[in-house]
Amino acid sequence: MEVQVLGPVEVRDDEKPVALGPPKQRAILAALALSPRTVVPIDRLVDLVWGDAMPAAVVPSVQSYVSRLRQALDPLRPDRVSRPVLVTRTGGYLLDLADDELDARRFEAEVTALHDVVRSLPESGPPPLTAEELAAAEARLVGALGRWRGMPYADLGDSTTASAERGRLADLRDLALEDQVALWLALGDHRRAALQLSSLTTTHPLRERLWGLRAIALTRDGRQADALDVLAVLRRTLREELGIEPSPELQRLQAAVLRQEEWLKWTPLRQAVAAVATGTPAPTTAAPGIWPAFERERHAADLDAALALAATGQTTFAAVTGEAGIGRTRVLTELAVRAEAAGFRVGWGRCSQDEDAPPLHPWQRLLADLGLPDDPEPTKADPFDRWGHLVDVVLDAAAEQPLLLVLDDLHWADGPTLRVLRLLAEAPDPRPLLVVTSWRSPHARPTNALGDLAANLGRRHALRIELEGLSADGTRALCAAVAGRPVTSAEGRAVHARTHGVPYLVVAYAREAARTGASFTDVVASVPTPVAELVRRRLALLPPETWDVLAVAAALGEADLARVADVVGSGPDVVLDRLEPARAAGIVQEMEFDRVTFTSAIVRDMLRQQVPASRAAWRHGRPRLAVAHA
Ligand SMILES: Nc1ncnc2c1ncn2[C@@H]1O[C@H](COP(=O)(O)OP(=O)(O)O)[C@@H](O)[C@H]1O
Ligand SMILES: [Mg+2]
């Protein structure tokens, strides 16, 4: 027999429902179930069931309801004589239910037991349980949550006792939902976790753990920008509702998401299972923290000087440029951490490649980070008013506390975003304000607006940092730090030759080496998928006629210009013109001795793989790579 109170009261005997009579009679059962094995005095019972609407002669009704309940329930117990379900005691009644005969108690026991399991899961790294064990725990939680049929103790009114118990059960249910999400995360079901967390954070906007898990789920689902958005929303909510800052854990999490720290990554369970099976400790790739930034000390010092200048009240600008993956965001992130330690408030806006991003989105993000109000009337007819308003908001805030504003990836900025930045650069009154921007350079197709801005910053004597690839030594050190094993100088040179020290590429190869255990020399012989994607994105920016020439040059292999011109069927001057965007984008090098040299062997190999062998095939259309991104 089981009494069920997680919804309108029900009794089931071997799954069969037991008839419980009219509403008040059922309510009396629910009221007794609120505190099983405890005497409930008649006046309390009346209070719980009738509240203020108590009829005149209520006690006889209670007695008759109880007696009919007894007739329904006692037969359900084999030893009914020695141990009846409903017992009369002086002044009241008692429902003699074992813990496993009341669904609320079973729910509670199950949820707390499973919570101990979930609590044992490490924040990062392989869980101590196998995939099967995790799935079994999740199934049990599904079963426990399935016991809910509606509002608990639905037959009772809003008395304090009933409400308190409902609240307690609701908390347990939230705990179960949260634990379920943690299990999904451990199982690698990041998307499902993110969806569930989006609804949980809406219901519980002040529960930081939920927001943290949501940011982790989004990051693991490859949505780093959304993860940062979510943390910005939390920061704003906490500020507005409670006037407090997010906990240090969440602040660390935000930095970790920005830096894409290793421990955020999901550890595939295959590994975990193997580790459990063989009893060997799992690899320690999941240690918190990230590898250090190599060979950026000088730039860091320059930026610190800019920060110090801003701290004296001088509005200061800086721009960090370099090709994709060179480490712009990393430099900015490290700066943001130092700035916060120096008492600056940091606002971060990133421009998005996403065509759907609304205009001024980076500024909105940045203001949200700072907890500043956005435009009160976004529908203002004159855009100038809106832009000026944004500038004013920032300047006012800087007057209160030193500010660091970061605008990352400006090569994707919308026009209004750049306009606001220019207005800010033209603002006459100095403020303790450091504005650091970043964009890709050499930019394949510089927009006029970005060019104008760069010139404008130049006039303001903005600090300009052009990031270069790491040296062969730096490349070797980064490989060793990421892969967690010694790297020979020959291996370091091989990776450097392949990547030109672009950290993103170096990291991709080092991860591949760590994953496969292969030597770096073998690993660089192939193109890891993320690298291929990066190269494809860069190539996709080039005009089609450049493509054709590049394809030929790659097929011929570092050919001299005359041969390329010959195959393409035009003069060397035309070939040079067409290669110019590729040179500006850093794909081919300055053409010396009339040779076409690729800056990266990866690009050359990729082009080769994609270009059909016969000239006729490529001549009549863009090479396939380009088509794939058209
Ligand atoms: N100097 C460096 N030393 C070590 N790792 C670096 C360095 N610069 C960047 N990285 C790493 O390389 C990857 C790409 O860097 P990122 O800052 O995202 O490049 P960008 O913003 O220029 O595209 C990140 O994983 C980052 O942590
Ligand atoms: Mg970046």
TrEMBL record:
Residues 1-97 bind DNA. CDD domains: BTAD. The keyword Transcription applies. GO terms for molecular function: DNA binding. Residues 1-97 form the OmpR/PhoB-type domain. GO terms for biological process: phosphorelay signal transduction system; regulation of DNA-templated transcription. Keywords: DNA-binding, Transcription, Transcription regulation. Transmembrane segments: none annotated. Belongs to the AfsR/DnrI/RedD regulatory family. This is OmpR/PhoB-type domain-containing protein. It comes from Nocardioides silvaticus.
